[in-house]
Recover the amino acids of this structure.
């Protein structure tokens, strides 16, 4: 079942994403995520977003899903509770 996730940005999130796109050098992946999250806020459909950003429909779906579920855009993997300390940690 393909669920449509509705992205609703507050003004702070919108400003952060626009600032990310407007200045400095950032990773392409992070910029595309920002574009994907700003587009539905402006009323674009998933197909239009995929075409304009240059990504697949599944990328749009996954990005919107992660944002709606509670993951912040461009943060990457969550940190471990305890930092990796090498092979010694496996022996304990």
């Amino acid at each position: 079942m393909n669920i449509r996730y509705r992205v609703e940005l507050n003004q702070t999130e919108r400003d952060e994403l626009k600032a990310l796109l407007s200045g400095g050098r950032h990773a392409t992946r992070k910029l595309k995520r920002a574009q994907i999250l700003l587009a539905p806020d402006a009323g674009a459909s998933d197909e239009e977003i995929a075409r304009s950003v240059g990504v697949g429909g599944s990328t749009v779906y996954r990005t919107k899903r992660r944002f709606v579920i509670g993951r912040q855009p461009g943060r990457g993997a969550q940190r471990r509770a305890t930092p990796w300390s090498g092979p010694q940690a496996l022996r304990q």
